[in-house]
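COURSE: Structural Biology Practicum
ASSIGNMENT: Worksheet 4, Part C
STUDENT ID: 0417
INSTRUCTIONS: Below are two proteins. For each, the amino acid sequence is given first, followed by its structure token string. Answer the questions at the end about the second protein only.

PROTEIN I
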Amino acid sequence: MRFFSVDNLPPNDISKFEGQRLAVTGTVREEPSTKFMPNNLYQQRLIVDVESVKMKGGNVPTSGAIILTAYNSDGVFEPARIGDKVSAEGNVKLLTNYNNPGQIDGVTRMKSDGITARMSAGKGGIEIESVDGNLWTKFLRLVAAIRQHYRESMAGVMSSEDAAAIFAMLFGGYAGLNPELVEDFQTTGIVHILSVSGSHMTLLAAATAYLCLLLKFPRSATLALGIFVIGTYTLLSGVLPQVIRSALMGILVFTATALEVKAIGARLLSLTALTMLIVKPLLIFDISFQLSFSATAGLMYIANDLRSLMYRLPRWISYPAAMTLSAQIASLPIIIWYFNQVSLSSVLSNIFVMPFLEFVIVGGLLGGIIALIIPFIGKLIFVGEALIFGISAELNRLFANLPFSAIQMPTLGFAAGFFYYLTIIFRRAEILILLIIALIFNFKPSGDLEVNFIDVGQGDCAVVMTPHRKCLIFDTGGVREKVFDIGERVVVPYLKHEGVREVECIFLTHGHEDHAGGAGAVIKKLPVREIITAGEPKEEYAAVFGISENSLNNLRAGKRGEVFNIDGVEVDIIFAPNVGTGNEISNVYKIRYGAVTFLITGDLIIENENEILREGIDVSSTVLKVGHHGSKTSSSMEFLQAVNPKCAVISVGYGNNFGHPRAEVLENLERCGAKIFRTDIDGLIKFRTDGKKLTVSKFNDDSTID
């Protein structure tokens, strides 16, 4: 009942005005952020608690919060503080995920914090009205000022990348971080140190406990001081929901340790989790909650047993190793589900790198305080921090580049995850046997062909898995102006989720970024045997991929009439114009498995459709990937009648600015009797066939259609 009361939004929530252009008034909730975008524009981002929207009948009281953004070319925005009033006009859009298996559900996470919509301010920008605010607002502004003090103190004595990394370690946030640094930390399993997590809280509590031990404080005073330190750090970190969750878990571990009673810690873990879920039921779907809870449980229930097994090792090795392994063991199915990677180098990094980084955190917090009193000493401390962090980062990079530093793992099924936890809890051989059986069934090839049209926003991407799990990719998605790397953030995670370790072939319809822009990340992350393209020059593809032309020896233009037979699946290039540019040069591919066929048309234009019909090319297919995202420049009635599809897939981005798909295209498809699927509505669309029967399932709908 509590869950549904939160999940069902009230009628006046800002998300209920989706698609409308409105003037919104509200209050700034969090410290605003400004960053330089890859499209050479500056972005200002505000979280605004909406109070009202202006409509024809007047102002309408409204609830919920929005992400409000504005853009300009000089980076100068009207100053905004927490608690100030904000007014802006724009189109209200829902928050959206890329709806594919294994993708982190950011929409539900933000919904748990009351954020349900987004808006980009128009030419009028964002109007700010300065408000004095109450005592709490003034306190939050003070916290924001302290955080800014840390930023400025570090920026003056170290590189921007080091300053961004150390600030992230102190207070959270990925702004300005070097992507290679983040990848190295992910590989070695210590990426959590780059955001405020339970480990930060435990570190501060441990430092406090050690100080209290030296001063011979009583246990009650140690407990009170530890909770005070964690609480103060939580306030300095912005009192954000994810920080509060980490603080609660940190307090829990510290309390259980201080009281030296495991049973009390176990009860507190249950009580803490239940309390958090009663307050915010949607946290059950939040990755940080899942990982914090499972890792904390591992520390409580598994760490001592592991330490006892390592009694021959020195304490400085056995303790961090046991802590690392216990947290990983307890959260393994969750880590594999989201990241499809298990770090084998995490023990090394936790033993040899984490102590330095922990020193950086404690020293950085103290350095900021000292810089307020004696700026020169504070700067010296931050110089030392930069040196220590640099050494730590290089050492971690060394571990990340070791052979088998991390291994890729396909996602565990529900049954395997269930028996995994039963095995940990009861530690019985018969449950382990059930786990092994579940894993065998989970990873056994189905023997069917799968064609997966994945949600890449305003772009195209179809991932084909042959009967023996060989992978073919038809277009790779991408976003214009390189604002978001679809390949790295969407396509590669999906491939890893499906257990793909190698790509047999990438078939590109043409070189536009929304079809080929994601290929660069796929090529960098996974071995690709061959890349078949349209007739554009190789250097154009190299530019779109962001890869040197010399390293694309496996790339070539496809020729009309070529047939590829891979694991019993036939791919025909039925059309490959070599004259024209852009959409005019789109290749058309036909995938055949038994009696079932799929037609991949890219951005095929009507003129080329007519040419195909004049030449008598057989385009009849069971499933049609509709040309050009449902634009009126494609999909003539004559062409659709020739294809005569049972199903039609439109790969299109939610709320796109092009008006795709067009109403006339949808009408033509309905007149042809095709069942229409759309990635902006359905998310990932999975077709499965044995060559005779065809079933389709949608990510946003559990039902399966025959």
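PROTEIN II
(use this one for the questions)
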Amino acid sequence: MLHYQAPEQDLEFLLFNLFDVAREWAEVPEFADFSEDVVRAVLREAGKLAGEVMAPINQLGDQEGCRWEDGAVQAPAAFRPAFEALTEGGWLGVSGNPAYGGMGMPKLLACLIEEMFWSANTGLYLYGTLSLGASICIDTHGSEAQKALYLPKLYSGEWTGAMDLTEAHAGTDLGLLRTRAEDAGDGTYRITGTKIFITSGEHDLSENIVHLVLARVAGAPAGTRGISLFIVPKFIPNPDGSLGPRNAVASGSIEHKMGVVASSTNVMNYDNAVGYRVGEENAGLACMFTMMNYERLSVGLQGLGAGELAYQQAAAYAKDRLQGRAPTGPQNPSAEADSLLVHPDVRRMLLTIRAYTEAGRAFAMLVGRSLDAAKHKDDAESLALAELLTPIAKAFLSDKGFECAVMAQQVFGGHGFIKEWGMEQIVRDARIAPIYEGTNGVQALDLITRKVLRDGGGTMRRFIDQKAADPAPPEYAPALRDALDRLASVTDWVVAEAPNDGNLPGAVSTDYLELVGLTIYAWLWARMAKVAGDDAFGQAKRRTATFFYDKLLPKTEALDRSIRAGAPSLMDMPEEWF
């Protein structure tokens, strides 16, 4: 069975030592109630729910999967009481607007809660996480009536959300979508079309499902400029929030997937369904991206959660498994073999997972802090930073999460390939994170074109300069300075060369995102090593930091060389040779 225990010591270290949230939040009136004692209590309760309620049914959900019959979808039976515990505790409204029943927690804190839930049970948490994005979208762009009607229900989990973008002929290219919206003349629209890959589009864990659907109003401009956003509820609600008639939206089938099989992923059909426009006509993509940006951070946290879950299993197994002898001689002479931890390559895998996971947790909190400052301090620079970091968070965290899951599986050897240990499920479940909510290739392209090239590298250079001014421990300072200089130089080179070759941004984008991610992690590891104490926990932090600098940061040198090679070796091959 998969076991999960919330890494409370690390969470508290990051909150109170690395980010010093007590000082930061004292400057934000909305966060006045989140004292250190309250935060610790919140973490304990979330960790208890994750470890004792959600994690024990993780493999059960995978074994049972979802069942579709005549448009109705049944989630795994064991999920219902766990989902009730998740919703009754208000955990789907942790960052929600308090005016409508949300808890109003800082996003930085919410990131840690999300990570725990992703670690404990990805399939179960997928039924609730789209509610977070839907509520943010409605709160930001909806009318007062829409907020009052939908937000309390989404925060409570009585209703859940779904994000309906993708169509069979139009994946990333949303400008090609064909779903139609006709103005009914009474303040509503009639939605007709089909969407695919809709997470939690139909299930039996909540009484209503609030679909946020992209569609095109008749006469709208072609491409993405003519897309509008609509609320299309499964049941049309009455003004008092009670359920009215069933809407003409239904699941045509569920997808049969490699992983997260306990999560319902649907083909959704709309047959003249009643829809309510959110925001202005033809401004739907901008509205949806409010939701998608938060969901992209959440998917990064999904990858992070997979890495943490995988590490916990692999580290415990490596301690218990006796296999072979240490290269320097027996370490456990009274037994017939030593533990796996005597083998350098096993330690390489475990330390790699740990280095990526612990730095990734700090990075996610950095993004959350930027979102908090942008929202509650009206800080334009923090908003620009959050927008810069979001594609990195989605792609780098999910890529490394999957990579870590595979490494942890490798620690188990043949047992990692056997279902009962749960490692193959972690790998299967983690694989979707680099794909959905915009593939990681799209995230890399977004980073380099919309975030770096669009402002001539200005936001990235300011970020680099800020980190360079942050004193680092002397054992890491030279390597960190080199890494920051390398990133600055590569950024300048890309900005200068991109106008000369239209293929260059796409050719180097994935390597560039990797370079940025590793450099940010280097800065975070230097900061964590600097504030860590002298106890065993602090010493382990510094030793993991040293491993990162010795074994992982040097990859930036190869990435620099690859980026500067540009596009020719990719694009000179004639199509017929493929």
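ANSWER KEY EXCERPT:
Q1: The CA atoms of residues 119 and 306 lie 5 Å apart.
Q2: The chain has a mean pLDDT of 96.
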